[in-house]
Amino acid sequence: MVPEQPNAPRPDPGPRSDNAARAGDHAPAREEELRAGSLEQRPLESRPLELGPLEFGAVRPEDDAGMMLALEQARAARAMDEVPIGAVILLDGEVIGSGHNRVRTDRSPLAHAELRALSAAVATTGDARLPGAQVYTTVEPCFMCAGALSHARVARVVWGVRDPKFGGCASLGRVLTDPRANHRAELVEGVRADEARELLQLFFRSKREAAKRSD
Ligand SMILES: [Zn+2]
User: Fold this and answer.
1) Is-catalytic flag, 32?
2) Which of 4, 45, 114, 189 is catalytic?
3) How far is the CA of 169 from the centre of ligand 1 (A)?
4) Burial, 71: exposed, middle or buried (Cβ in 10 Å; 0-12, 13-18, 19+)?
5) Does residue 99 register a pLDDT over 70?
6) CA separation for the pair 56, 137 (Å, rounded)
7) What is the reported pLDDT for 7?
């Protein structure tokens, strides 16, 4: 709270607005009206995110097998000299879509593992929404992928390791658990994380060594 300052000078109220109106200048009154309107709307438009503790769901017995499939996809990415990240989407125990990172090959920032798996999954089901679907991805989804998974209304997202520079679910944002959002998914992390991390570390180490050699 601002402490009271009884001796502080009162702000100059400025010229009376009715004088301005009489002079034919309606702009200040209109501006004030607009400002009042936007203030009324502000609480609805930008409710602040109250960051409670990040909550994760329990690991299920089937998660291990799901993540093994995602890791297979990540290895397929590595074989193409892509950053090794893979994803699969399961519905009622069936794989309905899988994919891996292909950003370099496709020369597209959209070619993330989760988006590719999601495109395949909606092609399989013929529906833009996948309620009940479980997503397995070796790395925490970025904002773009988490947004797409939210639009698809997936039920659960399981990842291996966090992505401190792009992660939109825990590291830098909470796209899939924000209480203000229309849809929320259950999150699980750390499934076969060591394997996901090792794939990434080996990839980036080999890139650094190659860069050193070419110096
Ligand atoms: Zn992504």
Assistant:
1) no
2) 114
3) 11
4) buried
5) yes
6) 15
7) 47
